[in-house]
Amino acid sequence: MESQFSIRAAPKGFGGLLRNIGPGVVVSGSVVGSGELLVTTRMGADVGFVFLWGVIVAAVVKYFIQLELGRQCILRGDTTIQALNRLPGLRLCNTSWIAWLCIIGYLCTMLALVGILSAVAGLMVTIMPAISLNVWATIIFILLSILLYRGLYNDLEKMVTFLVAAFSVIVIGSVLMVQGTPYAITGAQLASGFHFAMPAEGAFVALAVMGSVGATAVELFMYPYWIKEKGYPAFVGERDQSAEWEERYRGWMRVVTTDAGVCTIIALAITCAYYLLGASILNKLNVQPQGFEVVNQVSHIFTESIGLWAKGLFMFGAFCTLFSTLLVFAASSGRIGADFLHQIGVGSLDTSEARTRMIRILQIGFALLWLILLVIYATDQPFVLLLMGANANNLLLIPLAYGILHLAMTTVSELRMSIWVEIGLMVTIWVIVNFTAINLYLKWTG
């Protein structure tokens, strides 16, 4: 928590900036997960290379929203709930309507987590079929609970960094290796991905792509909580009009800018790699991943590019990728849930100890909820749940983006974003709204 940190000068030089990033890395553990591994490869399988442009847009377009959320946290020490609560309008339980709307949207995205848990359990069933899907899901929940109960930011950051980096390097390498196979990617195929076509047959999955790759609405919602855990607002200190404070603020904003940029670059590189593998291999094989063996079906992107021996490597990497998504989402949801309960006045959460206890209860409670829903409905269609959750994630972007734009525009002039960031934020919102509207139209009319 913030109380364990004290005012600190911002690092200087590129090396110093890199050594002090972290929240974006944790968010990347959620970003680089089910969206890339399952949704993006499915989009490539469905439509081939034609939607490459859309995948790139979806991966990078939310950078400016992430940056502004970081700015609001640095300036005031606000979490996302606290920042949204400053917006004018209807209030319920002393909480802004838009905070309520975003929380409802956030809960709807949890359908995807049930799907991810089912996919991870299904992966284990393909390896050890003697153990049932529900038993594997329970084992995964127990492992999650043990890791979450410790509640240490640094352990989580190091774990996610390792999981994301190891498998991502292999995935990117497999794109290079596919060039030595019958599935080699040609220049004409890459060029076809920049004709800005919007394939009607893939509209529902395209919406899920926007909702599940890059820093999605859920990951953006999480970001300020990890910034506070890292201590950036405490390093800046409360604003006192001094030149020293402004220097610290601008210095730590450079750290946030670098951190968000690293998160975006990681997401872009890995998203494109997964999409290209799906378009070059799964599309040619006419494989459309679905059912509880969805991960096993996606494994063709490794076995056809690297070799049959790589299937075990893929399954291990896929487990790490999906498990890290569950881990980061549960950990973040506990923090967001405790913050929201405190905001609306539920329970006694005024002390650090009470909040820490509630965070641990909620993060394990959310994971238990996913397990219960999986067991009750015995779902063998994780991809359907994943798409539904991802589309809810996409729709959540709109009110969240509106709230951030309002906050950015009302920040005092000497501390607000530059004109270039302002333009970038407006373009971001324009793209998100139009992308959503066009794909909804194609889905309804197709």
Overall tally of domains: 1
What spatial form do the alpha-carbon principal axes imply? globular
Task: Return the CATH class.
Answer: Mainly Alpha
- By oligomeric state, this entry counts as single chain
Q: What's the Cα radius of gyration?
A: 21 Å
The SS-based structural class is mainly alpha
* Terminal residue distance: 50 Å
Largest pleated sheet: 2 strands, antiparallel
The counted number of beta strands is 2
Helix content: over 70%
Order of helices and strands: HHHHHHEEHHHHHHHHHHHHHHH
Mean pLDDT: 84
**Which fold name is given in CATH as the topology?**
Amino acid/polyamine transporter I
Biggest sheet strand order reads 1-2
Structural features, described:
- With 446 residues, the protein is mostly helical.
- The chain has a single domain, classed as Up-down Bundle (Amino acid/polyamine transporter I), CATH 1.20.1740.
- It is built from 21 helices and two strands.
- The protein has a two-stranded antiparallel ribbon.
- A hairpin with a 2-residue loop joins strand 1 and strand 2.
- Helix 3 crosses helix 15 and helix 8 packs antiparallel against helix 18.
- The longest helix is centred in the middle third of the chain and has 43 residues.
- 52% of the residues are buried.
